[in-house]
Fold:
Amino acid sequence: MTFQANSAILDRKKVAQDAMEVSFRRSPDFNFEAGQYSQIIIPELLYSDPRGNSRLFSISSSSNDKERLCIVFRESRSGYKRTLIESSLGHEIVIKGPFGKDFFLPKGLSRPVVFVAGGIGITPFLSLTNFAIEEKLALQITLLYANKSKDSAVYLDELNKMAERNRNFVLKSKLGLIDEEFLKSGVNNLKDVNWYVAGPPGMVEKTLILLSDLGVDKDNIRKERFTGY
Structure:
């Protein structure tokens, strides 16, 4: 069910060299599954934007966080993003959603899962991983996280600490492109896990081809493409 509610900017912080996290007040009536996304509408932009006053963002906070809803994005000079970054705390926005019907952890899932994130594609996995840990799900999660540089890697230090504290969560990170060797490092049997892939369209398409070449059934893969804005 799609829901729409008035909200406001609660906080913002830089989480990588060129990435920001923005937190919004969460309405008690806004329910979502970890891994879903929402539409963030800014009724009053500080700067004009030819693409308008709304964008779609994966929700990076856990669905268990009842106080706030967080998004993470790469900085740019668009009027929309400049408004998110520069407006005063308390600036009014509208949250609409949630959206996304299959990029979440099905109830009762017991097979291991592998998350493959390229750059800013990490955002839905932040929500999914935090939720799984908070709920103490008996689920083995491996996160394969690739970035152009360490400075551009969102929440890499925090993810490393999460992996140290939780034996059911394994993090493997690299700088550069995702390849077969990196994918095979995630699990012993690639065909016996559920795969989740998120990142820029080119990265997602290449990863799908690699997984197909490795014999992974497409029905065991869920994907989400992040386009620039």
Notes: The chain is about 20% helix and 35% strand. The domain at 4-99 is CATH 2.40.30.10 (Elongation Factor Tu (Ef-tu); domain 3). The chain has a mean pLDDT of 94. The longest strand covers residues 3-16.
